[in-house]
Design goal:
single chain; 754 residues; alpha/beta; Rossmann fold; 6-stranded mixed β-sheet; 33% helix; globular; binds beta-D-glucopyranose
Length: 754
Amino acid sequence: MRNIRFKGSLILGLILFVMTNIVAQNKNYEAQIDALLSKMTLEEKIGQMNQYNGFWDVTGPVPAGGGAKIKYEHLEKGWVGSMLNVKGTEQVRKIQELVVNKSRLGIPLLFGFDVIHGYKTISPIPLAEAASWDLTAIEKSARVAAIEASAVGLNWAFAPMVDISRDARWGRVMEGGGEDPYLGAKIGAARVKGFQGDDLAAPNTIAACAKHFAAYGFPEAGKDYTAIEIGMSTLYNVVLPPFKAAVDAGARTVMNSFNLVNGIPATGNSWLQRDILKGRWKFDGFVISDWGSAGELVDHGYAADLSHAAELAANAGSDVDMESSAYIGHLKAAVESGRVSMAVVDDAVRRILRVKFELGLFDDPYKYCDPKREKELLYHPDHQAAALDMAKKSIVLLKNEKQLLPLKKDQQKIAVIGALAADKNSPLGSWRLGSDDNTAVSVLDGLQKYTKNVKYAKGAELVIGQATFTMETKINETDTGGFAEAVKLAKESEVVIMVLGEHGFQSGESRSRTKLDLPGVQQALLEAVYKVNPRIVLVLMNGRPLAITWADEHIPAILETWQLGTQSGNAIAQVLFGDYNPSGKLPMTFPRSVGQVPIYYNHFSSGRADPTPHVFWTHYSDESNKPLYPFGYGLSYTQFEYSSLDMIMTDAAGRQPVTVQVTVKNTGKVAGEEVAQLYIHDKVAGVVRPVKELKGFQKLSLQPGESKIVEFKLTDAELGFYNNNGDFLVEPGEFEIMVGGSSQTGLKTVITVK
Ligand code: BGC
């Protein structure tokens, strides 16, 4: 802190210098963009708004017919502005050469790809990373992903996904930062910075894409692609803030979404894209549709046909059409008939060209096509180290009775049970399109580096889908044939590590579930093993919160390891043997039963919140209201004590900013890290506020016996909220301030904001 203040004037000077330069650069770009626009035909302009999927091996012969031939011709004519799913320096260079050398104006293409949690070196799934609450590590993880992606010719990541979600049934919760808008906003911004770095024109930074705009994370009944009905308060206060944070952090692109938002498809939603994103937030990058979502306006019953869809999407501010050929096929006629103005097209093209200029593609269209970098950087040891660090930090200790964990290094007779324990594919998780199959360190591999005293039994088989991306791989649902071997091994062992959960392809896009239990025969396997040896450490692998209530009641130690990527087994082994003390905290509530979903900590109160002797209060008759594990929860091998919660009003008017101080002490016997969390409750408000809202967190490292004072600042940004018109307000009155190690525990005090 002191250092920063000391260097204040220097930094200010630097900021001014950079700002002046940015303005100068932007000016230059705008003039260059004007010049280019004035040379472009309408077809060429629409071409910039057209994105195609990669379709043939460009190093092979030109395709003879069909869609691929048309795409090839369009590339030659300059009727394509960007491609997705083309990767590798050789392929990218070939296509770029085709466009740069053959098309009339030679405008370079953007190459986009779903770089969701790593390219070759795979980091933990984003939900897991969110559990680290470690913004530096998360930024680094995106940085590594950008370095590898840019080394294979890519210049644009379709990430971060900043969709807040409260519904664990939805398979895509694995791809986001969890249920909380404050944490989600911080993580979204960190990821944008990681991808884009300080200089977008550098050869190892790529454009980020905040997606899916908007409310895609609130699908009805957790089923992917369903219509979304959402109230204004939730939209403004929960859904939109992470997008705004990503835009404020400089995200150069935003992807809209498949879903309806209160009856209007997001892709055709002018209020979201023009009024809010490009209007209020002054976003000057471009918006891309989701795959085919312009065409889906017809399926929704919003557009009569593809031509109508093109008109509606373009007018609503969807600048690029991903793979529905609505723009390339129909926008020209729409402009010529006056249904879409030339100004709409020019604005979209200007935005797209701006990003191309900023990336430096006009200076060197092949800047990402260096085979030497490609060879050197993929799977680089530094990237492995970052992935391992991220993986360790993402693990959450959910239960640890009688200190069963950490295991002793000389522990004898360890049984390892479960198909996922030996699997090297599942830990890579969903959305790892650039990765190589079976490249993760399995739990078994990781443990065997520590000890020879490990014996393995599968217990239940994996049922492997045909193609990793399109087919689900499941855990066997009927065959208990492997149980006997597993039970026998457990009986002969001192401790049993059971690796159970979901396969990596059981979450992700279109992987919604109606149950949140351990899939297949795993629950039965767990119970069978428990009968003969209850000294079980349950290592969970899953892409979403699970309702593992039986396990919580019976199993002494439970470790949430999500899908941790390439370094999975190494990270898990380090935690199991105590070489890393787990520090993760849940970014999403774990329900006790699927019937509680959506369950989230920042809910509203009810007029009937108190249990009374009668039945008329808000509750279930067959399940508690409480979650199994709350948001922000996670244990450590040590304990932390919170004390001396104190407020300092630093404003003369006694208003704000307010400094909140709390002392955190490591009262246990080993060093550890803790995430101190600050929540507020605005007690009375014109638009009612939730019972609790996260408004600050800090990760701190403490030696045994050590204590530190943690400081949080509360400014308007933390104390205010959006009303139903989208205006940001800070209302005077009493606020409860709660600080602790989870959303459910901690110290409390009250402040009055004047
Ligand atoms: C997903 C997007 C993704 C796109 C391109 C869509 O199905 O919803 O998140 O970026 O495909 O792969």
